[in-house]
Structures are given as C-alpha cells and as structure tokens.
Write a structure and sequence with these properties.
Blueprint (H helix, E strand, L loop, with lengths): L8 H4 L10 H22 L8 H25 L14 H29 L5 H36 L4
Helix pairs in contact: 2-4, 2-5, 3-4, 3-5
C-alpha cells in the first residue's frame, strides 16, 4: 500500500500524465495536421520525383489509412465528410494528391465543426473528445510516416542528380 504522500506506481514509473482534450487542443491538433498535409503536397509536387510501384502503393495505403482516421474523427464530431474524388485515369501522383486534398477538406470540416460547437456552447462527452483526439493522433502518425518516406525519396533524388531543388 502506498502512503498518503507517496507517488502512485504510474507516477513512480514516469508514465506521462495527459490532460483531457479541450476544444482548443483539438483545434490546434487539426491545424497541425493540416500543415502536415500541406508539407506532403509540397513533397509530392517535387519536380522529377518518380515513385516505384511499391512506394506509391505504400503511400496510398498510409494516406488512405490517415483519411479513414480523419473521417472517423469528423464523424464523431458530426462534421460533413463528402466522398473522396479521384479523377478518372489519374496517375500515381494525381491519386496521392487526391488523398491529400481529401484529408485537407476533412480537416477544414473538423475545424468548422469545432468552431460551431464552441460558439453554441454545446457539450461533447469527454470520451468522444478523447476518441477524436486519438483518431487524429493516429492520422498524424500515418502522415508523418508518409512525409518521412517522401523526404527520403526527395533526398535520394537530390543526391542522384547532385542538384538543389
């Protein structure tokens, strides 16, 4: 048994303690994700960037997973989530751009919905806010992984051509 002033086992182990999510923290998280999507867009638009089929498939899967997590967060908040639009006969880059554009549109919907909720004084259950935070965190991990892959490809291309882009 622990004494009245003794730390709990989690505190003693140095486990992080997180504050519950707030509307402001969810808004900040959504803006960070929107920035990440913008960075991905810039990386994909790098001139002369070519992707192997396996790299394109991996990125498409990661971005698809991120969009599913974002859709889950938006749905939990009651935000509109229109279907993704992929142009017919789109190449690899165009398909990846469609995923990024779809993610950015969903992030705008989430931000608008958060603004509406905050403005109306509406309450959301803490468990639902936590779920939204988790879904957006999972999406952020997928986006960071995708950005890391693209960053390595861009660096390799720069090294191969020995040029600065």
């Amino acid at each position: 048994a622990t004494g009245a002033g003794a730390p709990s086992p989690l505190q003693a182990a140095g486990a992080p303690t997180h504050a519950p999510p707030t509307f402001d923290s969810l808004m900040a998280q959504s803006k960070t994700m929107q920035d990440s999507l913008g960075n991905l867009k810039n990386q994909i638009q790098t001139p002369n960037l070519t992707l192997k089929r396996s790299q394109e498939r991996l990125l498409r899967n990661k971005l698809g997973d991120a969009n599913n997590y974002i859709r889950g967060a938006a749905t939990k908040l009651g935000a509109e989530t229109p279907a993704m639009k992929i142009p017919a006969h789109a190449g690899a880059t165009e398909k990846l751009m469609a995923y990024i554009n779809d993610g950015q549109e969903k992030m705008v919907s989430i931000q608008q919905r958060l603004d509406e909720i905050m403005g109306s004084g509406q309450e959301i259950k803490p468990a639902d806010m936590m779920l939204v935070q988790i879904k957006m965190g999972q999406a952020q991990q997928e986006l960071e992984y995708s950005s890391s892959i693209l960053g390595k490809l861009v660096d390799a291309m720069k090294q191969l051509f020995n040029i600065q882009l």
